[in-house]
Design a protein that fits this description.
The complex is a heterodimer of chains A (201) and B (205). By secondary structure, chain A is mainly α. Chain A has helices at 21-43, 53-59, 62-80, 91-101, 104-117, 164-167, 171-179, 184-195; strands at residues 122-128, 134-140, 151-157. In chain B, α1 packs antiparallel against α3 and α4 crosses α8. Classes of the chains: A mainly alpha (201), B mainly alpha (205).
């Protein structure tokens, strides 16, 4: 059975003006869809077609990995954003972030530095390590923390296509906007889920 | 002992329209390229004796660059060298076919201009993420097509570039969005083959 493009969890104009409908139209409608189409083309007729997306992300290489991981990463990214007032983390994520980074501000600074400082295309992540600790990382191109045994809790896409229409070269301004859109309830659900041994968008 | 400077564009921002739009050129040169130059200088400030070297000499053997600034020189020195090489390769009335000894070398190396073009286009299209497609002269004096990630340059691989194409999304997103193949097709209309031939003659030595 072919992989399908998950619906956006909000309308295309829901994140405006921080992320424009035009950006979403291309980012979701063209980039995400192209990765999905490539994934289906590359997996069709192979053993991979019967596997889960997560398993392909964990085990495949080359073009199949790139496209599968970009499908996973984008689905996860859309879920990390919400048009509702973001505020900041609360409850368990807030407690664990303070424990890991000293304070929520220190975490925000660390994640921002990872996102702005990542050279070239890629992703910034908040992950839960195997030992239960939280960490900030960045990955190049399609790479995904699952490959390193970490569980993603939050991500920011820093491929230029994620922000070039709205912010041009000013990636730092896009990351600033990102913080106003983070869906901390989703982060909390990912954390709770990963502690029970599951995960995924 | 000189700090690195942003070279002036050899044409107006709008000179390459409709193939590359003025807004893209303005940001690409004035913001992206300028940032690479500034960041390179900032890194070299920690080892000012390295201002003696040209950016190409810095990149030729990165293992000789002090470790604390090696990644910054690789990324920003590469960004500066690649863009400085790229701008003069483009011209408003470019396109057509290779000229001079480069034309003969392309035919000898790839069979025909069309075959070369196809190979270079594939390299540019399939480079995943940010990077560059290249035609270079390798250590044996042969023409080779390759692609590099991010701002890595063939210079660091012992090769000398003849033709390069920036396939970072910032090079084409305002005009072509996700359609990188359309941007690559447009590139062939603005290649300055005289300039590429001069690069080839210099690269071959």
């Amino acid at each position: 059975m072919a992989f399908t493009l998950p619906a956006l969890p909000y309308d295309q104009d829901a994140l405006a003006p921080l992320i424009s409908p035009e950006t979403i139209e291309y980012h979701y409608g063209k980039h995400h869809r192209a990765y999905l189409d490539n994934l289906n083309r590359l997996s069709e007729g192979t053993d991979w077609a019967a596997r889960s997306l997560e398993e392909i992300v964990r085990r495949a290489d080359g073009a199949l990995f790139n496209n599968a991981a970009q499908v996973w990463n984008h689905s996860f990214y859309w879920n990390c954003l919400s048009p509702d007032e973001a505020g900041g983390p609360h409850g368990e994520p807030a407690r664990r972030i303070a424990e890991a980074f000293g304070s929520v501000d220190a975490f925000t600074e660390r994640f921002t530095a990872a996102a702005v400082g990542h050279f070239g295309s890629g992703w910034a992540w908040l992950v839960r390590r195997g030992d239960g600790s939280l960490a900030v990382t960045s990955t190049a191109n399609a790479d995904n923390p699952l490959r390193a045994g970490d569980t993603p809790l939050l991500t920011c896409d820093v491929w230029e296509h994620a922000y070039y229409i709205d912010y041009r070269n000013a990636r730092a301004r896009y990351v600033e906007a990102f913080w106003k859109l983070v869906d901390w309830q989703f982060v909390a659900s990912q954390l709770a889920c990963s502690e029970r041994g599951g995960m995924g968008p | 002992m000189a700090r690195h400077e942003l070279p002036a564009l050899p044409y107006a921002f709008d000179a390459l329209e409709p193939h590359i739009d003025a807004r893209t050129m303005e940001i690409h040169h004035g913001k992206h390229h300028a940032a690479y130059v500034n960041n390179l200088n900032a890194a070299l400030d920690k080892h000012p004796q390295l201002f003696e070297l040209s950016v190409e000499d810095l990149l030729r053997d990165l293992s000789r660059i002090p470790e604390d600034i090696r990644t910054a020189v690789r990324n920003n020195g590469g960004g500066h060298a690649n863009h400085a090489f790229f701008w003069p390769l483009l011209c408003p009335r470019g396109g057509g076919a290779p000229v001079g000894e480069l034309a003969a070398a392309i035919n000898a190396g790839f069979g025909s201009f069309d075959t070369f073009k196809e190979k270079f286009t594939t390299a540019a299209t399939t480079r995943f993420g940010s990077g560059w497609a290249w035609l270079s002269v390798d250590g044996q004096g042969s023409l080779v097509v390759s692609s590099t990630a991010n701002q890595d340059t063939p210079i660091s691989e012992g090769q000398r570039p003849v033709l390069g194409l920036d396939v970072w999304e910032h090079a084409y997103y305002l005009n072509y969005q996700n359609r990188r193949p359309d941007y690559i097709a447009a590139f062939w209309n603005i290649v300055d083959w005289k300039r590429a031939n001069a690069s080839f003659l210099a690269a071959r030595g």
